[in-house]
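Working notes for the structural subgroup meeting. M.R. asked for a predicted model of this chain before we commit to crystallization trials. I am recording the input and output together here so anyone reviewing the notebook later can reproduce the run.

Input as submitted:
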Amino acid sequence: MKAIDTNILARALVRDDVRQAEIADALIADGVFIPLTVMLETSWLLGSRYKVGRLALADILSEIIDLPGVTVEQGDALGWAIAQFRGGADIADAIHVLGANGADAFVTFDGEAFRKLVDPPVAIEVPE
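Returned structure, recorded in token form:
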């Protein structure tokens, strides 16, 4: 199984380059692995450059996880992050917490933003 970069996933989703979209489709059809970092960058790209709204973006990210032959890093846990995003949290904050899986805590000075995360998989600490 091959892992793909954000530009491959983006071409398949946005279809702004027909030739590259066809190549991306073929790669994805063969089965691919998508790292959390690619999901994070894809959410940023679609939201900032292509102006995809929060709910539509949450739907797209969920659909990626459910694509046949696609394995998303921590796919089940990413569903939690998408739900947090759908509820108003920042997708990057939620994915950062997922990436800290196995740590004793995720430490941040931005306690206000992280308070939006419900039942995080890792304790969130704000040093004083």
